Amino acid sequence: MNKSVLREEIFKLVYSLEVQKSESLDEINVYLQNTEISEKFKENIKDTVLKIIELDSNLKEQISKNLKSEWNINRISKINMSILKIAIYEMLYIKIPYKVVINEAVELAKKYGEETSASFINGILASVVKDNNITE
Fold it and tell me: Which residues of the chain fall short of a pLDDT of 50?
């Protein structure tokens, strides 16, 4: 399983939890039991999602402070919110190169989001990179 596919599975689970307004370990386990992914990757997905849940307020703060002034975080779709949380987590906490993260996030937005999602995601993440002085 390549990293893009793994990231997409993480996205599906984070999105599922956003929709259900849940952070339950049981929900995570049920989701993983119903996927055809090897156990090794299921553990990786579970660990990543649990870290994203743990850092939820920090990730939302990063999103909020990088929105345009007329925007409110509550206006962001659950798909875009899920993509942004994963991307910001990867850039700030795992230190994956921001160009890779932004590219992958934009691809997820094109696949799952609305027509404007890709440019919205790109703009927020570019602002996060600048705001946090992230360099390769």
Answer: none
The model's pLDDT over 89-104, given as tens digits with 9 standing for 90+, comes to 999 999 999 999 999 9
Q: What is the pLDDT of residues 42-54, one digit of tens each?
A: 999 999 999 999 9
By the 8 A CB rule, do 86 and 7 touch?
A: yes
The answer to whether residues 124 and 63 touch, using CB atoms and an 8 Å cutoff, is yes
Q: What is the CATH number of domain 3-131?
A: 1.10.940.10
CB-based contact 125:91 (threshold 8 Å) = yes
Please state, in angstroms and rounded to a whole number, the distance separating the CA atoms of residues 45 and 97.
19
Rg value, the chain, Cα: 14
Specify the DSSP class assigned to residue 67: S
